[in-house]
Design a protein that fits this description.
The chain is α/β, with parallel strands linked by helices. The chain is 43% helix and 18% strand. The strands form 2 sheets. It has a 6-stranded parallel sheet, sandwiched between helices. A 4-stranded parallel sheet has the order 6-5-7-8, sandwiched between helices. Helix 2 packs across helix 3.
Length: 277
């Protein structure tokens, strides 16, 4: 796909790596006339292993770049970046709409039958104050007591980033992280990282067919749709950039997403904010 270097009105999307492609797929379906720019910060993936200060710095640097390229809406297609950076982004650019990605605690509370919910997330998201506040805000929506079992899943994102989607090692990680959810008897589980839907069959097999898995990327894309007004001047396009190896990401896109001949450009932050990372 040819990348046009001229700035134009567009939607910016970013993630620590490839996870946000699950959101991008939905955006391409819902907004076929929009110009989309996706930035994968693969040089710093996974964000789940980074400090909150690092995550905020990277998110600010990436958002600066997306705005310079013409973004009039930015989708933070990363649960961890949303948890640690979205308030800083909204404070820095109050006139620009930012769409975050958060575990769907509210729909999970509505869906559970026995009041026991599992949440699979990166270690950083699992430990975030924003997640704790989100859970506390919604678990009171039911007359019965609702328990949320939060499980940090170190190492899973790394293997997905590497394209390791079916190995015995990844299966062992998934089984280990699902064990506390099985022991708690959850009937509903949230995939609290945009990377995780790429291995949804592994999660489902480890939890069992009776557990309902909930995803968030469609709701995120629909929220973006509600904030975006198409115009006659829109030029449909898809630009992809990465802070890591463009060739490796291009191979990943072709192998996992089936988007052949999709060009990927290299990007490095110029912001002093990100240099401290």
């Amino acid at each position: 796909m040819q990348i046009d270097s001229s700035p134009s009105r567009e939607i910016g999307v970013f993630d620590s790596g490839v996870g946000g492609f699950t959101v991008l797929r939905e955006l391409r379906t819902l907004l076929p006339s929009a110009r989309l720019r996706y930035l994968a910060d693969t040089a710093y993936a996974p964000y789940g292993n980074r400090s909150p200060d690092e995550i905020r710095a990277r998110s600010i640097a990436i958002s600066e770049h997306l705005i310079e390229r013409g973004a009039e809406l930015i989708v933070v297609a990363c649960n961890t970046a949303t948890a640690h950076a979205i308030e800083a982004l909204r404070e820095r650019w109050p006139a620009l709409p930012f769409v975050g990605t958060e575990p769907g605690i509210k729909p999970a509370v509505a869906a559970t039958r026995n009041g026991r919910i599992g949440l699979l997330a990166t270690p950083s998201t699992a430990a975030s104050a924003r997640l704790r506040a989100l859970i506390e805000r919604h678990i009171g929506d039911r007359q019965v007591v609702v328990q949320v079992v939060v499980q940090g899943c170190a190492g899973v994102v790394d293997r997905i980033e590497a394209g390791d989607l079916g190995s015995a090692e990844l299966q062992a990680l998934v089984d280990r992280y699902c064990e506390p959810l099985r022991a708690a008897g959850v009937d509903t589980a949230l995939l609290g990282c945009t990377h995780y839907p790429f291995i949804e069959p592994l999660w489902q097999a480890a939890l069992g067919p009776e557990v309902e898995l909930l995803r968030i990327e469609t709701a995120v894309a629909r929220r973006a749709l509600s904030l975006w007004t198409p115009t006659e001047g829109d030029i449909p396009a898809l630009d992809i950039e990465t802070s890591g190896d463009p060739v490796a990401l291009q191979r990943w896109i072709g192998r996992v997403l089936g988007w052949q001949d999709t060009a990927v450009q290299a990007w490095q932050p110029q912001s002093k904010t990100a240099s401290s990372c």
